[in-house]
Design goal:
With 842 residues, the protein is of the alpha+beta class. Helix content is 19%, strand content 26%. The structure holds 2-acetamido-2-deoxy-beta-D-glucopyranose (10 copies). Residues 268-643 form the Glycoside hydrolase family 31 TIM barrel domain.
Length: 842
Amino acid sequence: MSLSLHVLTLLAVLGTTAVQVLAAPLAQCAGYQATNVLQGDSYLVADLALASNCSLYSQDIPNLRLLVEYQTETRLHVLIEDADRNVFQVQERVLPRPSNQNVSAASAALRFNLVKSPFSFQVTRASTGEVLFDTSAAPLIFEWQYVRLRTRLPKNANLYGLGEHSDDFRLPTTNYRRTFWNAESPFIPPGQNLYGSHPVYFDHRGQAGTHGVFLLSASGMDININQTDAGDQYLEYNTIGGVLDFYFLAGPEPAAVSKQYAQVVGLPAMVPYWTLGFQQCKYGWPNVEHVAQVVANYSAAAIPLEVLWGDIDYMNAHEDFSVDPTNFPLPKMQSLVASLHANSQRYVVILDPGIHYRPDYATFQRGAQHSAFLKAADGSWYRGLQWAGEVVWPDWLAAGTQDWWTDEILAFFNNSTTGLDVDGLWTDMDEASNMCGDTTCLNGSPNPAQSPPSNPGPLKGLPDRDLFHPSYRIANHRGDISASTLYTNITNADLTSQYDTHNLYGTMMASATYTALLARRPGIRPFVLTRSTFAGTGRRAAHWFGDNASTWADYRATIRQLLAFASMHAMPMVGSDVCGFNGAAQEHMCARWAALGAFQPFFRNHADISAPSQELYRWPVVAAAARKSIDARYRLLDYLYTAMRCAARDGSPSAKPLWFVYPGDVDTYAVQTQWMLGDALLVSPVVDDDAQSVRLYLPDDLWYDFWTWEAVRGTGGSVTVDGVPWTDIPVHIRGGSIVPMRVRSANTTALVRRENFTVVVAPGVDGTARGVLYLDDGESVDVGDAWSEIGFSWDGARFDAGGVFGYRTDVVVESVVVLGGSGGPRTKTGPWGLGGEFGFVF
Ligand SMILES: *[C@@H]1O[C@H](CO)[C@@H](O)[C@H](O)[C@H]1NC(C)=O
Ligand SMILES: *[C@@H]1O[C@H](CO)[C@@H](O)[C@H](O)[C@H]1NC(C)=O
Ligand SMILES: *[C@@H]1O[C@H](CO)[C@@H](O)[C@H](O)[C@H]1NC(C)=O
Ligand SMILES: *[C@@H]1O[C@H](CO)[C@@H](O)[C@H](O)[C@H]1NC(C)=O
Ligand SMILES: *[C@@H]1O[C@H](CO)[C@@H](O)[C@H](O)[C@H]1NC(C)=O
Ligand SMILES: *[C@@H]1O[C@H](CO)[C@@H](O)[C@H](O)[C@H]1NC(C)=O
Ligand SMILES: *[C@@H]1O[C@H](CO)[C@@H](O)[C@H](O)[C@H]1NC(C)=O
Ligand SMILES: *[C@@H]1O[C@H](CO)[C@@H](O)[C@H](O)[C@H]1NC(C)=O
Ligand SMILES: *[C@@H]1O[C@H](CO)[C@@H](O)[C@H](O)[C@H]1NC(C)=O
Ligand SMILES: CC(=O)N[C@H]1CO[C@H](CO)[C@@H](O)[C@@H]1O
């Protein structure tokens, strides 16, 4: 590349205001000097003084403060903030911080080493001295609207996470940029920012352990992973604001990092049992009669349907809290929901954040009375475009918004005879996606945002920033940071700016919806599905992977997305639009996707209005694949529910990559077409277009074919499985596991819960096995003592079940099956009740 082209590119990227700041090349930036270092048993503080002005994109902040806390044995907190504490920090009410247990530095698994001049720091693993993070790679830059921090990394490091993206699971290590700016992203374009922001990465160093690095920041940013011309590997944060609020997580086992991360951002919500059933949606269903036919046709095809969804079609003129009086009239909707409920099926509908700006629309009027909307400069409501047309936007940080939102949900989704008695809510378009692509779409009518306050106050953001066109431009695929979303110069009710809170909008909407649902059915676990996410959203909501296409490429992408969300973003309840959202689903692909979806936690078929219908009964082969895989899923429902319970209790991943289980096996590090569902099942779908064979990796261990129970000795190599019918998906049970299964499947999860168990013992290489079964009522937020956690063990000759038996049930263990052995599986028949421990020699 020629020099002139390089400069031109820079100018284009930086915009016109950047010309003068280009005069200060990066190399001249001298960073900070640490002074007044004060070290206690469990903390270190220091002042950081600017060495010389850098002024790369905006003015430097002269005085910073460093706070290092040994919060737990495995968690080190490093905060670099402005000494005056004006720079925005994510509100505690949006993301409550974990408590600091003040452990002694000497006992912590991670060490902090300070270099005073120029200031840099290292984080090392105490047990080995291994350097995990080292910011001496480049001087710290901390400006009003640009913050840069670079860490050295081992060459070609094994890095994962940094969602939401559709890129390789093991991240590229050269010339790779991840941008964080929540955006509606149809077709989930590779290499671009998508709907959510999770600035946490896992760094896997093989036998030397795995650690995690979480930057608690909602700011727009680019994270560059690259090598210098000299070949030095680095990862570099480039943010347009916020502070550097790092949590270093020691692991050292990969799943330990998942748990430590969940401790920081909050444990995931426990899902209601029914949400693990199969679900169907489509945008463009024309009327309630058609929807009732879908339900009937699922039944006629003997494919269990648990949850029916309503996309925006059900609304009147796309207004929230309304039904279309012609095609989806309320009485007919109510009888649809009543008949679903009578059959133990469920109904969930969509809500959008854009509230129609129509003076006689009661929801708008009541919101206005509560001052629940974002405001423009002249005090009028800030407006934009969403499905309903010209809309105003809830300000989730305003004092009256939660009450207004809860009241709307209580009234419209009234659980008595007057309302639409839904079982969950779906928050869409919450990035927030604004169909006003630029600043003039409302017929050019001026709609300026309110002036930012001259002194917003502590942690609420620096005043006098260019909130519209910051000089450092992140690589948002939508263009400017205000493009196709809310203007970033809008002031929220708590005096923070959209510039700083943009990435929190969806998580706040999901959280407000969760709160409303809890008020509506007190004590019952709410179910919220959100498109836009941020670190910690799993505390309140589930997520689907957005609007992609009915293509084999996107079928494969779901596996990478599942792995990242479930194992690294503390969001266990995730899945894709089965058979793809955009475009025409092809028969064989849809059959494969039905089976793949059956082994991912959130399992919903959904398609766009422009896409042909793709319900699973539409093709015989797809129906057969669905029946077979849903039958298996439902027999495994309590195994899956137990995995969700583990996730909710301690952050254990509901699904994870092979290297979590075989961290020393380098051949697993890049595997992104297989996953472990829970601890025992390895799922290895056919992944090539239209193929009937799959090359799957089987680690050096004992495995059992889930369908035939045949033992398979993995050698730590790939094996080819040929002739995989369109209806099938290869699944293996890991030796050493015990898997509780229902004896039979049923048409709804409520019926599944009445079936007895068979317990499948899959002995490992050493001949032993263990497993666990969690049981409760499936819906209470607080189950009190009414839960069971039954540990199963097999020592080679004896089977035992013990643990906690608080959940009362008539369901029994009918049989115990031990796989392997020369004579094939051996079965012992009970029954054994689930009210107390039992055991026997086989
Ligand atoms: C940076 O520039 C400001 C404004 O010109 C000046 O007041 C300050 O002393 C400079 N700081 C350093 C460390 O050079
Ligand atoms: C840890 O120390 C901080 C600062 O001294 C204190 O505010 C906090 O209460 C302590 N936490 C615990 C759990 O002791
Ligand atoms: C990676 O480094 C190369 C060489 O310095 C540079 O040309 C490229 O722009 C960098 N890419 C990113 C994403 O930082
Ligand atoms: C339901 O099945 C009937 C009979 O096959 C068919 O005529 C109808 O179009 C189907 N409707 C839907 C919505 O699938
Ligand atoms: C729900 O409907 C019942 C019966 O009409 C009514 O008494 C109640 O006030 C309604 N609840 C809300 C929150 O609107
Ligand atoms: C926010 O930006 C828009 C678009 O440039 C402009 O019309 C409006 O006046 C700005 N508001 C403030 C307070 O700067
Ligand atoms: C219906 O909603 C009210 C609150 O509006 C709640 O007190 C009641 O328990 C709910 N009933 C059911 C069956 O969910
Ligand atoms: C589900 O219902 C269909 C028809 O209603 C029936 O044929 C099928 O046997 C049922 N399946 C199970 C597992 O109960
Ligand atoms: C479960 O097993 C018990 C004891 O053998 C039996 O009485 C009961 O009918 C079984 N339940 C079902 C749904 O098969
Ligand atoms: C991750 C992925 O494969 N994304 C694809 C989604 O669909 C668009 C359009 O077909 C492709 O361009 C992307 O590559």
